[in-house]
């Protein structure tokens, strides 16, 4: 491992642990998370009273997503062809910089100065808002949660509920600060109505709208958008230009593939039978139609997804439908919140995706934030084996051949002292005579056990060998032979 790589790994580890420490000392935030996630999990459980039906639906959803990924190249070509036939302009971006440049170019060519934007995790990958604002284009988030964290100048802490870490008092204080003309209130309904009044004017006057995409149907050239607030529908129909951005893995083969995915997505994400709005966008405004955008664009972002797809095991990561169920059920996430991870995608799906997308040398330490309890794998609606993938990434991060082909940053977290310790452990446990000698020595010299054993004893008492080994005790009682 190079000196530069080692330094980067140490820096990311220190930064990660600092964020963890901050989160663990924020009692109010942890209370907010526990209250919100407990409710979400209860609502989800009510939506799946019949386990046999749930497992059948999971199998169906998994099969749809697996088929889409196996056939992804041809489906993307079909999607582009159908969208073009429908009058939607398709753009391809290999990385965030290209995606931002494409969107910025479309807006500048149209003379657009103001944008209303629906929730999109892919745009968080590209840091689109920051890029557009640097070039004089005003962006207003139209999703209530996204609008709240935009006022707070924070990234989302959850992929479904971006402001889940804030309570009503936090939101009331933000509104008081940025909208002093509105009477102060901590009533949720009044706060929501105030946000609605603020954003309505933005919808009516914005030059362009930007949205994400939940499913892109290759068969018909249809962009499907799932939402609860109506902001997605307004963002994609009121302005004269609509730009959608999504990862290339969101393509599905047929329109018939969407219903099972939609059913298990909404039930898994928020515990709803179905979301309030389900938008299907297939074309811009046609002659004689009274509403809809004059032009529709789709930006398809790769950003490492093609590299992930060629690995037969890691490919499963791309089945994700962004429901957030793994996050909601993660015992680590509920204690830390999303910001502690320091990445776009937090929780178990973040542990699996971000090291692959960004590199093990940059965010590989994230994989340590997993207890391997398996809860994420048990609730994933498309059966992504998250614990298995996280374990694979841990192994790659400390592999003994850092120069060999693999994920970016392969072997970057390997520590020579740790590797030597495990080699000695293997040597010890593979030779019975040597193990007996070690056990006898450890029991006799137990008084010399150090009082501190690194991070393990920060919150735990130091483990000491017993006065006599189990083998010796058994032999004393007349069991076992040499």
What does this protein look like?
There is one protein chain. The model has no long low-confidence stretch (mean pLDDT 92). The protein folds into three domains: 132 residues, Fumarate Reductase Iron-sulfur Protein, Chain B, domain 2 (Orthogonal Bundle), CATH 1.10.1060; 222 residues, 3-Layer(aba) Sandwich (Rossmann fold); 47 residues, no CATH class. With 482 residues, the protein is α/β, with parallel strands linked by helices. It starts with a helix and ends in a 6-residue tail after the last helix. The strands form two sheets. Strands 1-10-7-4-2-3 form a six-stranded parallel sheet, sandwiched between helices. Strands 8-5-6-9 form a four-stranded mixed sheet. The protein is elongated and about 95 Å long. Helix 2 packs across helix 12 and helix 16 packs parallel to helix 19. 40% of the residues are buried.
Give, in spatial order, the strands making up the sheet with the most strands: 1-10-7-4-2-3
Report the principal-axis shape. elongated
Q: Please, what is the CATH homologous superfamily of the largest domain?
A: NagB/RpiA/CoA transferase-like
Structural domains: how many: 3
Helix content: 40-55%
From the N-terminal CA to the C-terminal CA, the straight-line distance is 44 Å
Q: Sketch the major β-sheet.
A: 6 strands, parallel
Radius of gyration in whole Å, from Cα? 26 Å
Q: Predict the CATH topology of the largest domain.
A: Rossmann fold
Average the pLDDT over all residues and give the rounded result. 92
Text of the CATH class of the largest domain: Alpha Beta
CATH architecture assignment name of the largest domain: 3-Layer(aba) Sandwich
| Class from helix and strand fractions | alpha/beta
Number of DSSP strands?
A: 10
The number of helical segments is: 22
Strand content: 5-15%
Q: Which regions have little confidence, pLDDT < 50, spanning 5+ residues?
A: none
